[in-house]
C-alpha cells in the first residue's frame, strides 16, 4: 500500500465499510428502541382497555343490582300489599257472623285482585318485554310509548321506519337502551314538554334517536363525570355497555336549556 | 502487524468461532426450535465447506469453485430458517421458487463461468441482497406483531443482527474484490478480506448466541 492512489482507495474502501457498519448498528439500535417504544404503547393501551372493561363489568353488576332492588320494591310495595289487603278482606268474608256488605266486599276483593294481576303483568313486562319477542322492536317501542303516554307525565312521539328487523338479541339491546333513555328523560329532563323517539333504518345504517326539550345538562369533558351524569351514572353506563355489545356508535348532545339528544347508530355490518 | 498476519489471525479466530458455533448447535440440537435446527445443520455444512476449502488450499488447489456451492446452501438454509420464523403462508409459497432460482443461478454460474482465480461479485451481491431481504421481512414482523418482549432473549433477532452487520459490512468488499486484485497490491486485497473474515467472526458470534440462549416470548 505504497502508491498514493492505493492509499486513497484503501481509505475510501475502509471508510465505506465503517460507514456501512455504522448504518447496520444504527438500524439494529433503531429497531431495538422503536420496538421497545411500541411495546410500551401496547402495554399502556392494554391497561386502559382492562380498566375500561372493569368499569363496564362494574356497570353491568350495578345495573343488575339496581334492577333487582327495583323489582323487589315493586313486589313488596305493589303486589305484596295488594294481595295482603285482598287476604284480609277474604278473611273477613270467611268470618262466622253474616255481613251486610258482603257483595261490596267481594267486589272490592275482585278489584284488588285485578290490580294485582295488572301489577304482575307490569313487573313481568319490565323483566322481559313479551311484545318484543312476539311482534318485534317496532311494536315493542310502540307499546313502551303507549304505556308512557298513559302515565301522562310527558308526551312521547314515536317515528318508526324499520323494514329489515334485526336479531332478537340486538332488538332487545336497542329496546333496553330506549327504555333507559326514556326513563332518564322522565327523571331528569325538568321542564320538558315533549319527548321524541325515532327508529330509522336507512341504507346501511340503523339509527335510534331519543330527544327531549328539557333542561339539559352540561356534557362532561372526556373522562370526567358531570354532576347530572354522575347521578344517573349506572343507567348511562349500562347504555354504554349495550352500545359496545352491539358494536354501535353513541352520540350525545346536550347543554343547559337545550334539551338532551341521544343517537345510537348501528352499521349494517354488525347487524346479524 | 502486516495484512497477511492480520488475515491469518482473523482466519484462525473465525475457524474457532465457527467450531464453537457448530458445537453449540450439536449440544443444543434437541432443544432447538425448528428454525434454529436448520441453522445448526447449516453450521455443519459450513464446517465441511471450511475443511474442504482449507484442504484444497493446503494442497495448492483452487478452492474458489466452492463459493457458489456455499452461497446456494446459505440462501437455501437461511430461507428455511426464516420461513419457519416468519410463518407467513405467502412466503412459504414463494420460498422454494425464490431460493430454488438462486440455487439454479449458482449452479449455472459455477458451471458456465468457472473461475479459479477471480471472485464472483455479482453472485455475492445477489446473495447479500437476498439474505438482507429475509432479515427485512423478519424485522417487519417483529415490529408489526410485537410478540417479543425482550429482543436480547430472541434467537432470531441475534441471527438477523449478525446477518445485517456481516452483509452490510462485506458488500463493498464483494463489490471491489476483483478490482482490488487487478488494480492494487495483494496486501490491500488481503487486508480487505481480513475485515470480511472478522465480520464472519461477528456473524458466528451472533449465530452462537442464537443457538445458545433460550427464547422468551
UniProtKB/TrEMBL annotation, chain A:
Top-level taxon of origin = Bacteria
Q: What CDD domains has UniProt attached to this entry?
A: HATPase_UhpB-NarQ-NarX-like (cd16917)
Give any Gene Ontology cellular component.
membrane
Gene3D superfamilies assigned: 1.20.5.1930, Histidine kinase-like ATPase, C-terminal domain
What's a single GO MF annotation on this record? phosphorelay sensor kinase activity
Domain Histidine kinase, by residue range, is: 70-270
TM helices/strands, residue ranges? 12-34
Q: What keywords are annotated for this sequence in UniProt?
A: Kinase, Membrane, Transferase, Transmembrane, Transmembrane helix, Two-component regulatory system
Which InterPro entries does the UniProt record give? HATPase_C_sf, HATPase_dom, His_kinase_dom, Sensor_HK_TwoCompSys, Sig_transdc_His_kin_sub3_dim/P
Classification via PANTHER family = NITRATE/NITRITE SENSOR PROTEIN NARX-RELATED (PTHR24421)
This chain belongs to the protein called Histidine kinase domain-containing protein
Automatic annotation (TrEMBL), chain B:
Transmembrane segment boundaries: 6-26, 63-82, 125-143, 155-181, 193-213
Keywords attached to this Swiss-Prot or TrEMBL record, sorted alphabetically, are: Membrane, Transmembrane, Transmembrane helix
Does the keyword Transmembrane feature in the UniProt annotation? yes
Q: In its UniProt entry, what is this protein called? A: Uncharacterized protein
Per the UniProt record, the source organism is: Hymenobacter coccineus
Amino acid at each position: 500500500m505504497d502508491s498514493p492512489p492505493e492509499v486513497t482507495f484503501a481509505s475510501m474502501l475502509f471508510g465505506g465499510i465503517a460507514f456501512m457498519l455504522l448504518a447496520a448498528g444504527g438500524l439494529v439500535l433503531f429497531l431495538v428502541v422503536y420496538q421497545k417504544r411500541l411495546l410500551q404503547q401496547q402495554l399502556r393501551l392494554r391497561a386502559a382497555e382492562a380498566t375500561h372493561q372493569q368499569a363496564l363489568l362494574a356497570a353491568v353488576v350495578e345495573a343488575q343490582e339496581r334492577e333487582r332492588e327495583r323489582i323487589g320494591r315493586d313486589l313488596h310495595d305493589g303486589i305484596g300489599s295488594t294481595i295482603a289487603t285482598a287476604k284480609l278482606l277474604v278473611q273477613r268474608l270467611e268470618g262466622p257472623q253474616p255481613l251486610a256488605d258482603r257483595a261490596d266486599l267481594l267486589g272490592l276483593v275482585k278489584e284488588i285482585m285485578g290490580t294485582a294481576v295488572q301489577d304482575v303483568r307490569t313487573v313481568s313486562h319490565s323483566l322481559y318485554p313479551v311484545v318484543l319477542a312476539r311482534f318485534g322492536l317496532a311494536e315493542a317501542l310502540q307499546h313502551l310509548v303507549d304505556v308512557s303516554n298513559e302515565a301522562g307525565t310527558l308526551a312521547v312521539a314515536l317515528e318508526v321506519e324499520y323494514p329489515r328487523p334485526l336479531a332478537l338479541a340486538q332488538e332487545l339491546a336497542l329496546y333496553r337502551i330506549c327504555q333507559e333513555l326514556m326513563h332518564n328523560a322522565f327523571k331528569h329532563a325538568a321542564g320538558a314538554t315533549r319527548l321524541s323517539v325515532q327508529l330509522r333504518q336507512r341504507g346501511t345504517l340503523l339509527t335510534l334517536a331519543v330527544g327531549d326539550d328539557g333542561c339539559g345538562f352540561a356534557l362532561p369533558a372526556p373522562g370526567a363525570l358531570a354532576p347530572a351524569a354522575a347521578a344517573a351514572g349506572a343507567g348511562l353506563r349500562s347504555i354504554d355497555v349495550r352500545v359496545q355489545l352491539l358494536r354501535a356508535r353513541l352520540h350525545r348532545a346536550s347543554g343547559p336549556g337545550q334539551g338532551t339528544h341521544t343517537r345510537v347508530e348501528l352499521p349494517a355490518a354488525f347487524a346479524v | 502487524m502486516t495484512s497477511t498476519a492480520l488475515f491469518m489471525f482473523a482466519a484462525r479466530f473465525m475457524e474457532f468461532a465457527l467450531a464453537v458455533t457448530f458445537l453449540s448447535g450439536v449440544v443444543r440440537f434437541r432443544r432447538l426450535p425448528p428454525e434454529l435446527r436448520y441453522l445448526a445443520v447449516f453450521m455443519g455444512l459450513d464446517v465441511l465447506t471450511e475443511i474442504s476449502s482449507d484442504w484444497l488450499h493446503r494442497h495448492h488447489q483452487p478452492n474458489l469453485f466452492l463459493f457458489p456451492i456455499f452461497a446456494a446452501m446459505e440462501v437455501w438454509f437461511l430461507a428455511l430458517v426464516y420461513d419457519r420464523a416468519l410463518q407467513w403462508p405467502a412466503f412459504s409459497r414463494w420460498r422454494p421458487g425464490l431460493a430454488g432460482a438462486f440455487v439454479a443461478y449458482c449452479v449455472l454460474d459455477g458451471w458456465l463461468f468457472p473461475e479459479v482465480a477471480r471472485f464472483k461479485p455479482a453472485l455475492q451481491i445477489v446473495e447479500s441482497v437476498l439474505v438482507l431481504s429475509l432479515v427485512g421481512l423478519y424485522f417487519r414482523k417483529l415490529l408489526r406483531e410485537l410478540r417479543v418482549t425482550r429482543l436480547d432473549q430472541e434467537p432470531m433477532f441475534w441471527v438477523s443482527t449478525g446477518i445485517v452487520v456481516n452483509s452490510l459490512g462485506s458488500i463493498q468488499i464483494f463489490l471491489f474484490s476483483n478490482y482490488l486484485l487487478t488494480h492494487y497490491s495483494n496486501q490491500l486485497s488481503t487486508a480487505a478480506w481480513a475485515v470480511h473474515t472478522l465480520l464472519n467472526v461477528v456473524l458466528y458470534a451472533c449465530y452462537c448466541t442464537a443457538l445458545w440462549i433460550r427464547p422468551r416470548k
